[in-house]
Amino acid sequence: MKLITTITRFVVGVLFIFSGLIKANDPLGLSYKMQEFFEAWNDSLSKGSFFLNHLLMNLFDFLHQHSLALAVIMIALEIIAGAALLLGWQMKFFSRFLLLLILFFTFLTGYALLSGKFKNCGCFGDCIPITPQTSFLKDVALTVLILLLFWQRKKIKSFFSPGIDFTVMCVVVVISFGMQWYMLSYLPAWDCLPFKVGNNISAQMKMPADAIPDSTVITFVYNKQGNKVEFTADNFPADFNDSTYQFVDRYDKVVRKGKNNEPPIKGFSLSGSSDIDSTKIILEQPFAVLIFCLDFSAPVSRWEDDFFKIYSEAKAKNIPSYLVTARIDQAAKALSGTPFADIPVLKCDYTAIRSAARTNPCLYVLKQGTILGKWSYHQFNRAIKKLPSQGNP
User: Fold this and answer.
1) Rg for the chain (alpha carbons), in Å?
2) Percent helix, strand and coil across the chain, each rounded to 5?
3) 279-386: what CATH class?
């Protein structure tokens, strides 16, 4: 039993640390996934009559607003708990904590599986996407293993002295939060999103070559004597007539799910105040500079000086620059009085910008739609090196 416990301890500890580190690479990604869960739960609550509906909806709204802080804490706790298990440190507390944590994760992945609302639960971030079914089975297996560790918790001893354990745990805590701070400030070190450097945005907006579309049938919905009746064109009721059946709706019913049938980049459309789609024109430019501002909650003064250097250099080389935002209504006021108040402002879908820009703002240099480089506002000065020696003709 001692050998089994040691092996289980190692497997669970390493898996928790690995899972936490993968997500620590992109805390915003987990934050957005959490928001999807809160939105789904509130949507379900809004349609029900549970007596705690209002209280729970307010709670999920609050958590939605603070999802990033929640994500950072959850990721850090996952790494810390895994490290404590490997060390055998404070097992009375961490055996209980791991059990509560895995039961919570199992609930989330079970909901993701049964609801059918999620294609990826975010357990290993965007770098290792796994289906809700795989995630749920993984968490069930981990629950069994952690129950074993909980049972044997009094027999799990540390390999080192208390002083060494405490020192190591302090280092783990610093790394857990420090790594996330760095990624949130300077972009993820491992970019697993379709907007990564080297990708061509236009190509990523196309359907994959091996895509298999959903198989659907047209389904009709009629009202018959107060009851809704559904049928397809191939199985109309034998007693069908206009006096008995009143048309309600028609929709495409999926009878067989496709595979890999969505483009990596969805909803990426650039347009000005006139709503004319300028995406193709911009992505076909020999070179272009794009600065993504999800909104203007970060003061322009914070990045004004560094961006002005790139903006001036690009203008001197006849390279167009554009500001892309989800809040075009705020742009004029935010840019007023800055050296680039005349920059063309384009609007884009909120979700698309969140995927393209993990910092607010985020700078891109494009070559015919291919991403030559992307930087957070802390590193705008590096973008000048990616500008060509000669600009657009």
Assistant:
1) 26
2) 50, 15, 35
3) alpha beta
